[in-house]
Write a structure and sequence with these properties.
two-stranded antiparallel sheet; mainly alpha
Length: 130
């Protein structure tokens, strides 16, 4: 039997490359939920660290499920009142997620308030005339 991989997966979100399609789609889902609630309030480093955290979790947990990860992370986004209040967990634990959570809490990933306020104004139809 002859087997060949013609092309590996390559994706990109916000300039951050992904080579695993499951991690790509999980990251995309989580980022969309954050944007739906808070706008695009995170920087590129957050995307990279989210990708790396999910990759680590996939390899470190004996039984890992992307569906459960997406559900648990989505719940964290829904419960948060602001981006910096998001505290991700997986099966009720933050094992392997603690660095990501700490950086969120300490404003490492949030873009400037000026950009956030600009997004808020655009979403309300307020902005600079063309």
């Amino acid at each position: 039997m002859e087997c060949n991989i013609i092309q590996e997966f390559k994706g990109e979100i916000g300039g951050v490359e992904f080579d695993d399609k499951n991690i790509y789609y999980a990251s995309q889902f989580i980022l969309e939920k954050i944007e739906d609630k808070f706008g695009e309030v995170y920087n590129r480093e957050f995307i990279k660290d989210l990708r790396d955290t999910i990759e680590t979790m996939e390899y470190k947990y004996d039984e890992f499920s992307f569906a459960i990860l997406e559900d648990d992370f989505y719940e964290a986004v829904k419960e948060a009142k602001s981006f910096n209040e998001i505290k991700f967990s997986y099966y009720g634990s933050d094992w392997k997620i603690d660095n990501l959570n700490e950086n969120i809490k300490n404003n490492k990933y949030e873009i400037s308030n000026e950009k956030v306020n600009s997004w808020d104004k655009r979403s309300q139809g307020i902005g600079i005339a063309d």
